[in-house]
Specification:
single chain; 195 residues; mainly beta; two-stranded antiparallel sheet; 12 strands
Length: 195
């Protein structure tokens, strides 16, 4: 019954996002690799143009951090820092804003992409944690990544003791899943004298 930031329509962030269940698109360009994640429409940028990380006096914690990388043959090596504190998954430990990751990402065959991830966190981990994630290509011609906004019909609320409560029909704040939450359009917007 713990509270999960994703329940409040916040991004998963890195490293949690790496074990996500929703669809990914990988876009590899000469100077940047983009990871587009369906949940919350997150976009991760791994810069491979030789730049360094943001200067320390300009850096601040981001959901998906500051990722730079390079190609080692057919493997993209990515280093990520400046991450917001969060949790790895529901009912799992938290990570601090001192967490950093090294990833070795490569196609192992025409169907599978493998990400070998090592996570350091001097606050919450006694030693680095290593995990290997494998992503399978979806060859369906119907597969699409949609703009995903759970705020439109979210029915999750945080309780006073920090747990999660699902709002049911009749509860204050309940949003019907049969109709999207939309801001009414002002018919006078744009007319002279109106803002």
């Amino acid at each position: 019954n713990e509270w999960d930031p994703i329940s409040a329509c916040l991004p998963a962030g890195i490293p949690r996002l790496l074990a996500g269940l929703f669809q990914w698109n990988f876009v590899d360009l000469p100077k940047t690799t983009y990871w587009l994640y369906e949940q919350q429409s997150e976009q991760r940028n791994i810069y491979t143009d030789g730049r360094g990380h943001m200067p320390e006096d300009e850096a601040y914690p981001l959901w998906d951090g500051d990722s730079i990388g390079f190609w080692d043959g057919d493997t993209l090596v990515a280093h990520t820092i400046n991450l917001r504190p969060n949790q790895y998954k529901r009912s799992q430990p938290f990570y601090s804003n001192k967490v950093s990751t090294i990833e070795r990402i490569r196609l192992v065959n025409k169907t599978n992409l493998q990400n070998s991830i090592t996570i350091w966190d001097p606050v919450y981990l006694a030693k680095p944690w290593h995990v290997v994630q494998t992503y399978r290509r979806n060859r369906s011609t119907d597969a699409r990544i949609d703009l995903w906004s759970c705020e439109e019909n979210a029915n999750v609320a945080e309780t006073k003791n920090g747990g999660t409560r699902i709002l049911l029909p009749g509860d204050p704040g309940y949003r019907s899943p049969n109709s999207l939450y939309l801001t009414p359009r002002n018919p006078d917007a744009g007319k002279p004298g109106n803002k």
